[in-house]
Amino acid sequence: EGRETGGVGSWPGAGRWKRRRTGAGVDMKRLKELKEMSRSSLKSSLKSSLAFVTGQDKVPTSTSSGGGSGGEKSLAAEPGKAVGLPWEPQTPEEIPLERELRSKILKLSQSSEPWLEEYRENEKLAPEEAIERASEILKVDENLRKIRFELVPKVVNEEEFWVRYFAAVHRLRCRLVDEAAKAGEGQDGETRDEVERACQALRSATVAGGGAASPDGDGRGSKLGRLEVSAKQLRHMARALETARGYRRMDDLSDAGKPSTTMTTKTSGWRHAVARRVEAGRNMLARKMSAGGKQERLVGAVWDLFDPEDARVTDWDLVMALFPSTAKLIAQVPAASPTGFLAHLSSCMGKMGTMAEMSELWAHAIEEITWHFRNLKPIPRVPRERSPDLQSCPLQQKLMLLNNCIARKARFLNRRKMEREAAAASEERVALPDGTKVQRRGHKSALDGKRMLLVPDEVIWVPETQEEGSVLTEELIREQEDLISKTGTIGPGLQQLLFDMEAFKAANPGGVLEDFVRWYSPADWVERDGQEPELSSRMKEPGNMWTELFAKAKATPASEQNPLFDFDYHGEMTIESLAQIAPSDLFEQLFIVSVCVRHALLEEEATALKEAEPESKVMAAVSESEEFSVTTVSRGMGTSKLEKICAAYETVEDFISGCAPREHVEEEESLWSDYHETPWGI
């Protein structure tokens, strides 16, 4: 009480305390003013915190930092003013950096360093604007909510907290833009891709070595990264597959509840309609009561899937030798690698409690895939430039096709830019027999010992040509075969020949068919002793297609031609097919991928137990589950097969857990206890 009133005789030692503080040159009146300011700041911070929690943060209040009055001023947002997230691009240079900005800004809240750094005046955001922007980022950044709870008002007040946060965001934004500008000057796209692939391979090799800690920091060092697919999640995905068979589109799942154990397609009539409506109403109420948690799970899952800064990517080719049983399983069932994008997607799907959440997760994934394609950003955890693996599932083939389209388009645009710059800077001209001079374009290297027939002073140059071969999925190959069988055409081959002729003419002004044949098909250029070289007999036949095409070809370098493989068309059509996929088709493929992931996790655990106890029979159990899965897992599985697969992996999981040392079992139970008690009942 003596401290509050400023008295000196109501508590022991008060006079001694006052003399000591006064002797240090501190004005007691000023101390009292500072104390009142602290109380007012605390009250303001508590009000603002309560407003953020209840959602009534449209007109937050705060204490004025100037003077000692402690008065409150209104920080209401301007009507109609849009408030966005801090990583939204503000300049054209920031548009391709949006994903990287988002990843790095979200990592700011993982430590208290941004709030300990000083900021310059040009980095400072007005307190009113800072608090106005705060509500949106608080909805999606759980770590920021936690650190705000720890620092406000114990360390800083509300205004200072947000001013320092957005100053750190400003510094990060400027640094990324500067780094991107320097990287663009020093490296071209292909070099950056090579460096990134090398770094990824190095990280994967480190993980494969087994010496590094696991990504989650628990010290287990999993070679598969952060994947989590338990037997319960596998059964959850099986129920989701059964439920999905009662729907035609993914959008129809927006009101669906938890996956059912019964086949919805067997129920019909008015009873089914009433049951669906009751279930939809119940799910709508559940969504409104738990909207925050659902949104947080969805946002976290999508960001984990597409995080460009995720260093926990494991290349399956590097660790496949450590999983022989899983490799055999994947080679014989239509699945995907247990470390790839679909494996992580199936893991995220298994953690969603309702079909509506799964549908929304898929919709968000399609949006991100579309953004990656249109901004030429490779889809993470998918091979970048490989042709689609026809032994994998259709989803994996389409993702590989998209990444290949992205890589081809990036190379095509980069080469076009470079050739245009080279053509603008080049002054090389070729003198034709009629005296005209024509610029050489799109040439790569000289053909040794070969000179043009009509212009003997000029050597034949090898032109830059388009990439050969189409990149097609199994579905597109069937469509092309049907088209060829119906029309009897071999158009793609002739189109490539025509484009190569056009590129040759651009690189060799004044060139004739004989010059082209000497480069393109040397076997059709016949040289006999004592005779003049000439074209082969098939080239001289009347109506020869090569002669007609060469006469039709115009001098056009490869960079100016229409692409042989229309990456824009195939990419957009692939995205559309992913968006329109049938729910049963999607969940069946994800279930098969989940089986492979669960098998890989069990094999890894069994291998570790086998090394600790050589007499253990855990590897025999893994081999038996592999043989069972090869004969059982397939497209079009019925309910009985799904039940058998889930029961088999539950049995193997229990057997391996029973063979593990007791302390290891207790550790696993403690790690998974919170997960098994989730409200969505997985």
Please describe the structure with a list of short key phrases separated by commas or semicolons.
mainly alpha; two-stranded antiparallel sheet; disordered C terminus; globular; 682 residues; single chain; disordered N terminus
Could you describe the 3D structure shown?
With 682 residues, the protein is mainly alpha-helical. The chain contains 25 helices and eight strands. The protein has helices spanning 2-5, 14-23, 28-54, 98-108, 127-140, 142-151, 158-186, 189-208, 231-244, 269-289, 291-306, 316-319, 324-332, 341-350, 355-374, 394-425, 474-487, 491-507, 513-520, 545-552, 567-579, 583-612, 618-632, 639-659, 662-676, and strands spanning 61-63, 72-74, 429-431, 437-439, 443-451, 459-463, 525-526, 534-535.
Topology:
Blueprint: H1 2-5, H2 14-23, H3 28-54, E1 61-63, E2 72-74, H4 98-108, H5 127-140, H6 142-151, H7 158-186, H8 189-208, H9 231-244, H10 269-289, H11 291-306, H12 316-319, H13 324-332, H14 341-350, H15 355-374, H16 394-425, E3 429-431, E4 437-439, E5 443-451, E6 459-463, H17 474-487, H18 491-507, H19 513-520, E7 525-526, E8 534-535, H20 545-552, H21 567-579, H22 583-612, H23 618-632, H24 639-659, H25 662-676
Antiparallel strand pairs: 1-2, 3-4, 5-6, 7-8
